[in-house]
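Key result, reporting period 2: structure in, sequence out.
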């Protein structure tokens, strides 16, 4: 009887050790897949359902874990074995017109989505401080700014992004870009540092809003992370 108990104990210890080592190995492999010297696949800063009812859980999960992850993986593949592996993202954007289409699309998809996740929060607070002052100075009021931003998002034909940016002269402006382009790229019609962005690709809203893009755009104001936008603004004017 003692021999049987000892044998069972050894068996469970072996299985437990194997499972623990396998878990560690899987975590290590996952980290290796999502981390390079210059680029990481960031965690979503809130739960998939945290932005309900404005952005639904299923959309967030698919958008983050499938679309965003695919852009990141394909971005790394597109620069693998090239000098771009050693570059930072802004340097890549500054010469994007000289890069293959795969680099342009996937680097933009990686950066734009990362900025988009950070532009939202489940703990909404109204805009205040320097960014509010700058918006009122440039657009006359927060309402005027929202109307112009919404117009840029609604009228972006097909897929793309709407932006609030600051230019080299510290002047705010609103723009939109097609596909995965952004205002940091040398191909942008108007160049500047992004402060706030909204994804108007259909995969960002179609499960909940279907073809009602304007409704999705209006809902965005309930989840904007104005504290992050203000931080980006202050960093840009230093």
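The corresponding designed sequence is given below.
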């Amino acid at each position: 009887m003692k021999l049987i108990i000892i044998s069972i104990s050894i068996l469970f210890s072996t299985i437990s050790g194997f499972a623990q080592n396998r878990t560690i190995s899987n975590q290590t492999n996952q980290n290796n897949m999502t981390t390079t010297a210059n680029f990481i696949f960031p965690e979503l800063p809130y739960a998939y359902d945290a932005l309900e009812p404005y952005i639904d859980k299923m959309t967030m999960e698919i958008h983050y874990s499938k679309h965003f992850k695919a852009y990141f993986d394909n971005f790394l593949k597109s620069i693998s074995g090239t000098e771009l592996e050693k570059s930072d993202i802004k340097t890549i954007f500054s010469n994007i017109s000289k890069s293959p289409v795969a680099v342009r699309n996937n680097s933009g998809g990686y950066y734009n989505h990362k900025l988009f996740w950070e532009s939202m929060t489940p703990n909404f607070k109204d805009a205040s401080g320097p960014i509010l002052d700058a918006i009122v100075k440039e657009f006359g009021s927060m309402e005027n700014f929202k109307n112009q931003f919404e117009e840029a998002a609604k009228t972006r034909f097909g897929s793309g992004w709407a932006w609030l940016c600051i230019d080299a002269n510290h002047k705010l402006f609103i723009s939109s870009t097609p596909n995965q382009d952004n205002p940091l790229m040398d191909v942008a019609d108007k160049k500047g540092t992004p402060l706030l962005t909204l994804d108007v690709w259909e995969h960002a809203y179609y499960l909940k809003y279907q073809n009602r893009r304007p409704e999705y755009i209006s809902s965005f104001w309930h989840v904007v992370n104005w504290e992050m936008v203000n931080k980006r603004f202050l960093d840009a004017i230093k």
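The radius of gyration is 22 Å. The chain is about 55% helix and 10% strand. This case is discussed further under Risks and Mitigation.
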